[in-house]
Amino acid sequence: MRYNVIGYLVGEGFRNVFKNKKSTIASIVIMCMSMLIFGMFFTIGENIDHIMTNVEESQGMQVFIKDGTSSERVKQIGEEIKEIDGINKTKYVSKEDALNQVKEQWKDKSDLLSGYESVFPESYVVTLTDLKLNEEVQSKIMQISDVDEITSNNQTISTLMNLANGIRIVTGALLLILVIISIFIISNTIKLTVHARRKEISIMKYVGATNHFIRGPFLVEGIIIGVISALISLLIVGLVYNIVSGNLMQTDIAKTIGISLLSFSDMFSIIIVVYLILGIGVGVIGSSISMRKYLDV
């Protein structure tokens, strides 16, 4: 009996979808447009987070030691830096290492640097666990005695953090707006089906059918519309993202900066879950709203 009821609800839901083809297509188109816009900002946000992670791992700060500091004290400074909260890795750079790095940059003119080993101070290259701690960590390092100065790409880090936060805010606001629009569209679409069957619903109520039983097919209809929209949007977003990201990675700017973007497969599991939750949730809410007044018999 339970199986027959479920079969009836699902069957009626599918029949409603195909019976109202125009309104169903309109709902799917609107939901797809909403999900595509959200998907665009979602993938951008995920890549910003990915780039931020890479920056955290590679873009640190360089802590220079005062000239004349003993070897024992230099090692001790390294240990004191490691003890600071927010430090990921520390790498010691000797005077010779610093000279060799500059020689690599100068290439053919590197011979001009011969005899200048003592000019370059010893230092530690420090990376962070979280870029938000950048200024706090710098302040604590500067309190360590025999630390001369710190160089860091503060402007780059600040710009990336502001960009990441801006993307998150825009994505959240867009999601809210698009969900409201989608709920409105689906509720009106299903309302047409409900209105056409209002007499049938009244008869079912009089013979004892529960609200849950009557509401079931329309909820299924909303879910079907949501799932179809989610799958279509997922396919389009995947194709467009692969094309755009592939072209971006071939540009000279991307090669020069050395950034990497996430592949769509890296984000697939997150996006499909988000899309299905959005599609099913919007479908259920839209269906519930459209049914209210017709169940009050």
Can you describe what's shown?
- With 297 residues, the protein is an alpha+beta fold.
- It folds into two domains: 2-55 and 158-295, no CATH class; 60-152, Alpha-Beta Plaits.
- The protein has helices at residues 2-19, 21-58, 71-82, 95-106, 134-142, 154-196, 198-206, 211-249, 252-257, 264-291; strands at 61-65, 87-93, 123-128, 147-152.
- Helix 1 (2-19) packs across helix 8 (211-249) and helix 2 runs antiparallel to helix 6 (154-196).
- The model has no long low-confidence stretch (mean pLDDT 76).
Please give the alpha-carbon distance between the first and last residues.
27 Å
Count of spatially separate domains:
2
Largest sheet: 4 strands, antiparallel
User: For the residues shown, what is the average pLDDT?
Assistant: 76
Cα gyration radius (Å): 30 Å
Which structural class is indicated by helix and strand composition?
Answer: alpha+beta
Outline the low-pLDDT stretches: none
Side by side, the strands of the main sheet go 2-3-1-4
- Relative strand content: 5-15%
